[in-house]
Specification:
This protein is mainly alpha-helical. It is built from nine helices and no strands. It is globular and about 45 Å long. The two termini are 25 Å apart.
């Protein structure tokens, strides 16, 4: 990692995880495998901030800890990259197990339960699907009908999504992280 940490991918230690490495990596990983409109890719860092915000809209009384887990819901992608859901399914459970072990180490690094409680995971998934709907219709060329078919119709207000350069996406992610851990 750029921090100088060496992360054992088969046995990740929370001691080798730094939020700056996570933010740096996620800001450079493209959602939708880069197949989005705009001068820059819509990064996993931006997606993570969006999911955290949508999670808070779905459940306004969430603790900071729960919102931090929402922000970090895709944090393992700083190492493993972004794979679209159909490809993850094709790769199989070994990939998912690997991803979950890394996410558990990330949670332990920041004092969060590993794994997250099932009710929170369901909430994050709901927010993640809403984010996917907005990303699909605003950035990835989906029609509204097509996005509804794949992701459902969100009932929240529509955020305006603008893909940011990596440095700005990284800053946005780190700022949100700092507010949640303060």
């Amino acid at each position: 990692m750029l921090s100088g940490r060496r992360l054992d991918l088969l046995d990740p230690s929370p001691l080798d995880i730094e939020i700056e490495d996570i933010a740096h990596g996620l800001a450079r990983v493209a959602r939708w495998n880069g197949q989005t409109a705009g001068d820059h890719a819509f990064s996993v860092a931006q997606h993570s901030v969006l999911v955290e915000r949508l999670t808070g809209e779905l459940s306004p009384r969430l603790t900071r800890e729960a919102r931090l887990m929402a922000l970090l819901h895709d944090a393992s992608e700083y190492v493993v990259g972004y794979l679209i859901s159909p490809f993850k399914a094709a790769v199989g459970l070994d990939y998912k197990d690997f991803e979950l072990r890394l996410l558990a180490a990330i949670h332990r690094r920041f004092g969060l339960p590993a794994p997250a409680p099932p009710a929170l995971l369901a909430l994050f998934k709901k927010a993640d699907r809403r984010a996917a709907y907005f990303e699909a219709t605003q950035l990835a060329g989906f029609s509204t009908a097509e996005a509804r078919r794949f992701f459902g119709a969100p009932s929240s207000r529509t955020p305006r999504l603008v893909p940011l350069p990596p440095a700005e996406a990284q800053r946005l992610f780190l700022e949100r992280f700092s507010r949640l851990v303060a």
